Amino acid sequence: MVTIRKSHPKDAKKASKLMFDAMDWLGNLFQFNSLKSTRLIEKLYLKPNTRFSHEHTHVVEIDGEVAGILTTAAGSKLDRFNLSAALNSVSFLGFKTIKNVLKHAGPLLKTKEALADEYYITTLSVDSKFRGKGIGTKLLDLAEQLAIDNGYLKCSLTVDASNEKARRLYNQLGYVEQHQYKLMHYTFVRMVKPL
Ligand SMILES: CC(C)(COP(=O)(O)OP(=O)(O)OC[C@H]1O[C@@H](n2cnc3c(N)ncnc32)[C@H](O)[C@@H]1OP(=O)(O)O)[C@@H](O)C(=O)NCCC(=O)NCCS
Question: Start and end of every N-acetyltransferase domain (predicted)?
Fold first, then answer.
């Protein structure tokens, strides 16, 4: 049976793994391996008001297993959620991380992921064994419904330019490329869909 529900703290392990699958660049920024990155995301998932928080996350469950996740944020709140995530990460960060984050501080501070009038899809991720079955599409439909319910006329997201699968899906569903920006060796594409 397929159900969509709000996520709970008890989903933390699976949700943080899925979140890392969607933003493995974070490991490169923080110079963490996947295990340490996932642990940090798990910690932030359990805290309120970070971009990873369970309170902003929905999950698709198939026969009792979490198959995919969607995390969203009002565009106007994203900077606050990012700051809260950064502050809650401090105890995790060593010299190597701080040095690398400072090295990329310019593009990090300049980057505007979402505008105030957009409902932002912070993370979309589907477990590899459940991909290609319409779950990603279902979660994007949910994001658009949440946007409308909250009075927004646009959904937006950012995707790694090399993630062809995700970009194709977003294009098919009406997301339009706005501009690209660089962070480390990655190029990211900002996309917006009018609702
Ligand atoms: C991108 C991602 C979320 C897509 O999730 P998904 O559940 O596979 O998405 P869907 O199944 O809705 O769509 C994928 C494809 O399957 C097709 N499809 C949808 N429902 C289908 C069905 N019932 N039967 C067969 N194919 C179907 C879609 O048309 C789409 O086709 P395309 O490859 O030609 O574009 C998933 O690949 C993922 O989690 N990737 C890793 C994390 C990631 O990159 N996240 C995005 C970061 S921005």
Answer: 2-195
Place of tokens 């501080």: 105
Q: Where are the beta strands (DSSP E) in 77-194?
A: 119-126, 154-160, 176-183, 186-194
3-state secondary structure of 142: helix
Q: pLDDT tens digit string along 171-188?
A: 999 999 999 999 999 999
Sorted by where each starts, the structural domains of the chain and their CATH numbers stand as: 2-194 (3.40.630.30)
Considering only CA atoms, which of 68, 15, 16 is closest in space to residue 39? 16
pTM of the model: 0.95
